[in-house]
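Hi Y.,

Following your request, here is the sequence exactly as I used it, all 257 residues.
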Amino acid sequence: MLKKDQIDSPWPESGTVDPKQIERFEKLAEEWWKPEGKFRVAHKFNAVRRDYLVSRIARHFGRNPGNEDTLSGVRILDVGCGAGLFCEPLAKRGAEVVGIDPTARNIEIARWHAAQEGLSIEYRHGLAEHVVATGERFDVVVNAEVVEHVADPQQLMKDCGDLVKPGGLLLVATLNRTARAFLLAIVGAEYVLRWLPKGTHEWHRFLRPDEIRGMLRRSGLRTTEIVGVSYSPIADRWRLSRDTGVNFMLLAAKEAK
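Below is the corresponding structure, written out as tokens. Let me know if you'd prefer a different format.
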């Protein structure tokens, strides 16, 4: 069993890690919290995902989503947390948040920014498999924009499923492997609009909803909802949608014992 100080140390070789992807995000680490930086679109996109997740957690655990502390006592793990863009809003709603990331610089920036905001968030440099080895389990596990960057998606989904407590939830947010996703998320977002650095995504790594659903089913999780996230250029905002052809979120629950 790994100890916490081993999790904070540089991660060992792992089948889920793609060194080229880690190197790419290492170079982008300084951009996370810049309002007009290379992650500016992610800030707008995250607002939709945050509100969706808070509402579903509240419904699942019988909470009032309108309360500021609606997530009080809910322990959440953000796998591939980057510099904490998803962690901080959840902590502000009362959740006990742990964020892990394989890029050491991301964790340094996440810790610094949380301190500036006066937030108590536990950040660790490591991988999902390291947390699995500690025996820790969480009420909610978040895996947002991560599975399309790893070498072994099946193993990552298994690790995330193992980290969910009985009766808990798992949220996976990613991109669909469709022709439209190639045109909009890669050609449009990276090369035309330049919302993201070129090379951020590789289309062949994208997963279809049914593929993720099958992976999670083998880990004992039942998919309860799949929703799309679409961009409205007129309103310049992201919104929930029935269209899962490009961006989608999948919510799964583990049976309570």
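Residues 4-254 form a domain with the Rossmann fold fold (CATH 3.40.50.150).

Thanks again,
Q.
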